[in-house]
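[agent] plan:
  1. take the single chain provided in the ticket
  2. run structure prediction with default settings
  3. attach structure tokens to the ticket
  4. add a short note for the reviewer (M.T.)
[agent] executing step 1
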Amino acid sequence: MTYFDSVSTIQYEGPTSKNALAFKFYNPKEKIGDRTMEEWLRFGVAYWHTFTFDGTDPFGQGNMVRQWNHLKGMDLAKARVEAAFEFFEKLNVPFFCFHDVDIAPEGETLKETNENLDIIVTMIEEYMKTSKTKLLWNTANMFSHPRFVHGAATSCNADVFAYSAAKVKKGLEVAKRLGAENYVFWGGREGYESLLNTDMGLEQDNLAKFFHMAVDYAKEIGFNGQFLIEPKPKEPTKHQYDFDVATGLAFLQKYNLEDYFKFNIEANHATLAGHTFEHELRVARINGMLGSVDANQGDPLLGWDTDEFPTDLYSTTLAMYEIIKNGGLGQGGLNFDAKVRRGSFEAEDLFRAHIAGMDSFAVGLVVAHKLIEDKVLDNFIEKRYSSFTNGIGREITEGTTDFHKLEQHALQLTEIKNESGRVEEIRAIINQYLLTAFAK
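[agent] step 2 finished; step 3 output follows
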């Protein structure tokens, strides 16, 4: 059975195309520097938002029109696999991602849940034999079920900790079986609502023990994928332990986990933390911890995780600037952790939304590469910090001075002259690059 009969394989038609079901800027085989767009961008489809999201929100029932809506249980799970691989093929994406409960329903017991997973994983495995689409990462949903009301690896209930470990153990086995390039830990409810009833030290110690056990088991079964932590500051808990990259990095360093983990950075989570997307990417990059990206955007007028498809070209450009400076994403990718708006309920809208996001990041790639090639930002930054390349500045950066020498230098100063940061000029130049990148 087919599920998207009205859609053919999405082709690149160029910037002047009026076809809504065609790429305008994403040309997977086009070389940008030493790699193709497909190799740089490594796009992934999020199984949960694309195939399981039904449009339900706190104020309304599900309204998405999907050919599999009438099915239940394992029949529904199997239909979604069929639909997913048809979607991957027509969109021509290299990767997909999923939570365990996205692909198979939970049973009455953990044993039954694992049996359901095994059936669907076998089905996915068969499809992957003839598909170009690989598994970017999988993860365990440890936030939806009522058992996780107080968290998973940070729960006050040891039985929940054990159940969570069993879920991740199974998840790692699935990752190994399907050849996942990464495995993601998203905290979900790993945080607290109130410090009045929370032993923060114990919870964080337990979380670290959980991660170390995961590292040990991955080694035991020979899973070589990269472990990723996905920071998020709040929602559903008031304060989550993986608040942002800096907080997550401090945790990893404290518990000697930094050699085993990198970060999966989501744009919308960055804004919820009070940061820009590019800030979180930069913090991860300069610390050698940038692993993968969840590509979406939030609504600045709303204070929650709206998971919109990314269309802000300024944001995608600055994101790709960091990714290129990082040398690419390695085993990671750009996973569209994004859902169509509730009003975009037709099946074709899934394609339209992904096309918009893929085109937006393709524009960002082209512009960012040109900015780097022309050393636009590098030249500004080099000039701005030029005082640290000679004299007392060089002694500071080389660590060959002290407070005595610095005081002597300061006492001899008759005037301190600063120069303009020229940030408005820089933004205007970026606008110029954006507007002329595809001009003939």
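[agent] step 4 note for reviewer: Residues 14 and 24 are 4 Å apart (CA to CA).
[agent] ticket updated
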